Structures
1.
Amino acid sequence: MDVGTASSACRFFRIDSVACIDHLEKVRVIREHPVGALLLLGVSAAAWLFLAWLATDMETPLAQLVMPMSPEWSASTVLAVWSMWSVMMVAMMLPSALPMIVTFVQVAQRNRQPARAHAFVAAYVLVWLAFAAACTAGQWTLQRYGALDAMALRSSAAATVVLLIVAGLYQFSPLKRVCLASCRTPLAFLLGEWRPGVRGAFRMGVRHGQLCLGCCWALMALLFVGGAMNVPWVAALAVAVAIEKLAPFGDRIGGVLGVGLIGAGVIRWALIGI
């Protein structure tokens, strides 16, 4: 589909032309590089299968390490909990990062610089591994103060109210808008943040990871609302993130989601009377 046809289709469906064309560009990149896209989706699928196994077979030693009954954690417990959160971040974030990663790898391959591609992807994943460490600390803190159901990794009623309202308000913040806009436009990011060399590619990967984190951290915090061991809830949040970042109308859906989260928080507040 050429630009003129795309613009006409966008006007017909009352979708912003720039956003629509950018969406078509993402689809084109993925269709022209199916092997890389399938590889990333395969890694994400493997992570999802691991999470499903962990959630359905809670008698295994690993599952018991991930869901400690006491806030007195051993080193092995910390490592197991961090590993679980790391796998979850990979499962949730790789699909929505597909266009950016595939586009960068495509450019690196054209320039015969595979090391740049490896550095960019490694840096992006590293940011989310760091966030997994923050989630691990959050899980311990909530458990330490009795605000977490250790079996389901679900927050208490009061913590749930706070998380819902904060996440809803953040959907309308300037930082959210800036980060989301960058995550939704891979080519604009590459043009604006381009750095030469392998070290430059690593810096670009960190920068993109930071922007994605700025876009999604509040939604990720909602994992404690529905329960990090509730795979359908985790999947629902992953879909919400992907729609925001990939769909031509994702920013509008994000606004609707924000209103819904604030409303859910207020209703929950009224029900528990805090």
2.
Amino acid sequence: MTTIKERSRPEVVPAPFLVHPLGSHKYPITEGYIYSKAERRQHGVYFHGGIDYEAQPGTPVYAASAGYAVAFYHRFVVRNRDGTIRILDGLPIGNGFGLAVQIYHPPDISDVSGGVFTQYGHLSGFAESITPKMTAPIEMDIIGSLRRRNQKRRSGKLTETQLASLIKEQKQLIDDFPWLKFIYGYHTGQTVEEQESYLWTPNDLFTFHQAGSPYVTHVNQGDLIGYTGESPLFWGNTDYDEDNIPFRIPPKDQEKRWDEPHLHFELAYRNDGPFRPKQQIDPYDLYLSWVHYNGKLDTLFVDS
């Protein structure tokens, strides 16, 4: 049987070229390439694909290497496999990158054909040099989705009475927490201009940057790009207006989030195509859960 590393590790991995996105390796790793059992119980997902560093909200975040940066907002509703809204200790939870920065590192920086991307998620705000491309939310049809799922079931189909009861429960949740109806950061667009900025190809980034777009910023290694936060890890009610996010989201009480404050850091390849699927690279070359990320490791960081 093959290991997760053997299945997940790309054939070509960059040579070390990164610096730590928090400016120091002192920050504890709280989640690795695969989620811990404790976190899986919260949202039900196994693969993480990135590294989480515990850091208090407002900690400066830096570009791990030079490249072309875009910023955006991304949030979804955590749902169960059957499409129902997932509940954690009586309350629904939100997830996603939140306020985030993505940087494309061209081949002359990463020494990899086609280049690679890094992502920095759950921020509380951006550096003044970074302008986010914010897009309108998309309203989901959660109730209609549940009906369609039930119709397609070959076995275990709910009776009309059971389905009506389930829909009543889900409608009450949506009435109590209106943000559950919407997702952010999912515009694929008919044109490049309509797309989310994190979907832009390297050619798109070069073109927009040369044209003077405010949404593409060239950054050098170590440049300030933002500040750590807890967006959009809602647990129950939201505490900021997603349609009018302030320049910096003020820190809130920890009990209002379902996860500890941290920076989500991700290194990945992206392929061209409508959704540009990505293949994540573990910068510590472990492809395991957080408990293994200690001691002297071979990394892609030049400052380790």
